[in-house]
Design a protein that fits this description.
Oligomer: single chain
CATH class: Alpha Beta
Low-confidence stretches: none
Structural class: alpha+beta
Strand order of the largest sheet: 3-2-1-4-7-6-5
CATH topology: L-fuculose-1-phosphate Aldolase
Mean pLDDT: 96
Shape: globular
Length: about 240
């Protein structure tokens, strides 16, 4: 494919990702998903500041990792938390897509001392550890928005090599090797949080996945077989064509 085709395909994936995550209840009025540029690893694509369910290809713009737009947005606003995306791409060359959201299931764990852990096989996308980043530790009282590179780089350090991190009193970030993988992981990590909270409410002991089960289940879930089965279904549920 030509570069223009690569970029068009990236924007199409981002439109679908936004619509799917909105349809599945992972994002609502707020939240965003991005993709690293297929042409330049020092840039990424993300929508302007509108709700995910409304995103079209015309709403997606290219940014430098420091959050500066490549082209004039013609009066449109950028997401104030776009720094999250740039800082993670800066810190993690392996990451090709990032989602930030405020799913209620994840916020419950972000705002408590209960560790979020995989409790069923698809929840293995959480990995062995879900770090929790607290903006107050370094920055004191803020609006809780990660709206500059200093905060975003601090968050990226907390994420480290992991795929999911919680933001204390705020939400979550999900990083992955592709847009489709990030959508898959965002959905099932939130599902896992819902299931774990229900198990806690039931009382008794919870049977968490073992280390080996996490490794094997995550490898299977995030393989082409798992993602390529899920993606067309999620597109159909959102009224989208998969291709």
């Amino acid at each position: 494919m030509s570069s223009a085709s690569d970029i068009a395909a990236t924007k199409d994936l981002l439109v679908k990702a936004n619509r799917i995550l909105a349809n599945e209840g992972v994002v609502d009025d707020f939240g965003h998903v991005s993709a690293r540029s297929p042409e330049d690893p020092g840039r990424y694509f993300i929508s302007c500041a509108i709700s995910p369910a409304r995103v079209t290809a015309a709403d997606i713009y290219e940014y430098e990792l420091d959050g500066m737009p490549i082209a004039d947005l013609e009066g449109r606003r950028s997401y104030s938390e776009r720094a999250i995306h740039g800082a993670i791409y800066e810190a993690r060359p392996d990451v090709m897509a990032v989602c930030h959201h405020h799913s209620g299931a994840m916020v419950a764990f972000a705002s408590s001392t209960v560790p979020l852990r995989p409790v069923f096989h698809l929840g293995a996308v959480l990995g062995h550890e879900v770090p929790v980043w607290d903006s107050h530790t370094e920055f004191g009282d803020t609006s809780l928005l990660v709206d500059d590179m200093d905060k975003a780089r601090s968050l990226a350090r907390a994420l480290g090599p992991h795929s999911v991190a919680l933001l204390r009193r705020h939400g979550a970030v999900v990083a992955g090797a592709s847009v489709k993988q990030v959508v898959f992981s965002a959905i099932y990590s939130a599902d896992n949080a819902t299931a774990q909270a229900r198990m806690i409410a039931m009382g008794g002991d919870i049977s968490y996945l073992t280390t080996g089960e996490i490794d094997q289940a995550a490898a299977l879930n995030l393989s082409p077989a798992g993602i390529d089965r899920s993606w067309p279904n999620r597109c159909a549920r959102a009224g989208l064509k998969a291709d």
